[in-house]
Automatic annotation (TrEMBL):
GO MF entries: metal ion binding; N-acylsphingosine amidohydrolase activity
UniProt membrane topology term: Multi-pass membrane protein
Cofactor field: Zn(2+)
Name of the protein: Alkaline ceramidase
GO terms (BP aspect): ceramide metabolic process; phytosphingosine biosynthetic process; sphingosine biosynthetic process
Transmembrane segments: 39-61, 68-89, 124-142, 148-166, 178-195
Function field: Hydrolyzes the sphingolipid ceramide into sphingosine and free fatty acid.
Organism field: Ciona savignyi (Pacific transparent sea squirt)
Keyword Cell membrane on entry: no
Amino acid sequence: MAPSSFAKDKQIIGFWGKPTSTLDWCEENYVKTVYIAEFWNTISNLIMILPPFVCALYYWHKKMEMRYVWANISLLAVGVGSWMFHMTLWYEMQLLDELPMIYGTCVFLYALHHHATPVKQKSYPYIVSLVSVSVLVTVVYLQWKNPVFHQVCYAALVVFLLYEAILALKNYPSIKPIVLASLCFYLFGFFLWNVDNVFCSNLRKMRSSSDSELVTAATQLHAWWHIFTGYGTYLHIVFSSQARLLHLKRECKITKLGNFWPYLSVGEKS
Ligand SMILES: CCCCCCCC/C=C\CCCCCCCC(=O)N[C@@H](CO)[C@H](O)/C=C/CCCCCCCCCCCCC
Ligand SMILES: [Ca+2]
Ligand SMILES: [Zn+2]
């Protein structure tokens, strides 16, 4: 599903010129500033930029295996790509948003699949399969610029990740709450993404008939999709790394930073 043909009537052209992307989401373009096409959709990406940046540095400092550092960098890459896309609405930036979603999910699959393997042991057939899927999706999507193709491929990878998560849960039932939290936030974000696409004209009417900035912000459901899926994905990284550390019998505990932000507190490497 793609929000394609809304507001063809009064398009404002801002600093980045006419949109060249194959998607233009429900948020009205260049309303807040001429430098950012979709303001709320842009700044909501901070949730995919700041926490994984800090978490990547923390895991690196704690000498976690590099795949968990890369998992954070993958989410960070999606956040930066998505920021660039919503700011410019350029086709090239859309690719910078969408393709890392595919690569990132492959990194998550790789990390989760290897949560119970001996240190430095890798499953080469699994790696080859993930690289092949990434290359295939990239090549086809560069030729066939249909966003639904990207959405179906991405959704299939997420379902496969869910299957890997269920397998990991069998080994470590204690991680169930964080797996469930990750899934609930993610699915709620997906629900909002659909509402935004289906009820775009209603949401726009609500915004145009209200002067309240609160209504404007609250009805940007694509921005809320970023926030909920970004948080759900961050929690996925927390549980994937926790499953690994439990397997390695290395000390770790989910702690809250400032009584608010959950992260995996990791003990020193023995
Ligand atoms: C299950 C819990 C954790 C899952 C982690 C999944 C791996 C995440 C990988 C990358 C992070 C992505 C975070 C969201 C970024 C969104 C950026 C964005 O908005 N991009 C759009 C352009 O602005 C792009 O065009 C959007 C595509 C949306 C595709 C939606 C596909 C639906 C996926 C639904 C999966 C349903 C799973 C059902 C399971 C029962
Ligand atoms: Ca828009
Ligand atoms: Zn987006």
